[in-house]
Design goal:
This protein has about 170 residues and is an alpha+beta fold. It contains 7 helices and 9 strands; from the N terminus they run ααββββββαββααβαα. Helix content is about 40%, strand content about 25%. The strands form 2 sheets. Strands 2-7-4-5-9 form a 5-stranded antiparallel beta sheet, with no helix packed on it. A 4-stranded antiparallel beta sheet has the order 1-8-3-6. Helix 4 crosses helix 5. It is globular and about 50 Å long. It starts with 5 loop residues before the first helix and ends with a helix.
Length: about 170
């Protein structure tokens, strides 16, 4: 395993404790993807076939409500991002994910993840715990607890983070 995966290993080890042979199986299932600033990872109507881990960069999840672009969340280095509803159902997405800066992402395909779940209780547990977090996020997004309309002021906690606030300004 190369140093490229240090951040991912650190995050995974906070979620579960894989035995020595389990981590390489997970790393080998990943593909490294690079996206340029403003490049779209997922478009509305496309099926989300990946969960991405942000190794470098910043991404955003957004959708349109009544013709108004609404940012549902920002994701930074060390975060997992996907359109969970589309990923789980393998049905078309109702939103978008794009890169706010140049990004290096580690992606795992839906089929590869299912194989890992079937082969290891550790990865099945990791998947469940990550799914719980993504489900919580999805619920907040659907209930309107966290979306940020493009036209309104950014929440104070985004404003207090220079990385997030400068990225937000770059999209408006």
């Amino acid at each position: 395993m190369t140093d490229d995966f240090d951040l991912l290993r650190t995050v995974i080890k906070k979620i579960v404790s894989p035995v020595d042979e389990e981590l390489p199986a997970f790393i080998n299932a990943l593909a490294i993807k690079k996206f340029k600033r403003k490049e779209v990872l997922l478009s509305e109507g496309s099926i989300c076939r990946y969960i991405w881990f942000i190794n470098e960069g910043l991404a955003r999840d957004y959708f349109y409500r009544d013709g108004i672009e609404v940012t549902a969340g920002f994701f930074k280095e060390g975060d997992f991002i996907t359109n969970y509803e589309s990923f789980i159902s393998q049905k078309p997405s109702k939103g978008y994910i794009d890169a706010l800066e140049d990004c290096e992402l580690f992606s795992i395909h839906y089929d590869s993840l299912q194989h890992l779940y079937a082969s290891s209780k550790t990865w099945e547990r990791a998947g469940r715990l990550i799914a719980e977090q993504l489900s919580w996020y999805l619920n907040r997004k659907k209930t309107g607890c966290c979306p940020i309309p493009r036209s309104c002021n950014i929440f104070p906690w985004y404003r207090s983070n220079p990385l997030l606030s400068s990225a937000y300004r770059s999209i408006i």
